[in-house]
Amino acid sequence: MGEKLINKPELMKAVFNFIIDGHSNSDIFDFLSENGADAEDSKLIFEDALRKFMKSTQMPVEVRMGWCLEAYSRLYQKFMASGDYPGALRAVQEIAKLTEIKGEFKKEKSESVEDYIDDQLSVNWELKTHEDLELTNGR
Predict the structure, then answer these.
(1) What is each CA distance from 16 to 24, 55, 103, 112, in whole angstroms?
(2) pLDDT per residue over 97-137, tens digit each?
């Protein structure tokens, strides 16, 4: 599971990640013991990691949905870059499902396209009309 860790925040972060990775409770408690945590500290560290999961459920729906959309967008990019087109398609399908779910939570008029432009992209880029663009056809 990894190298020896000394402080409790590092142990809690490791335990949190081990839970996400699917390690068993007994493996996690063995890891904590190997890294100097006694039984009481191990229990507290494990409970802190579980509380972090509970705290995640208290995030606003929009934050969780946004995180999911961003994660699927990254997966889509990685799938496309590696040539895994079925994986990319699955990511797009999941993004579409999340978009439908978001529509159920928030039924209000759509914002304009300008509201969706990423701030970092809009800083150094000028928006051009289609007449300003030249089609080079590979030349």
Answers:
(1) 12, 13, 32, 40
(2) 888 876 665 554 444 445 444 443 444 333 334 444 343 33
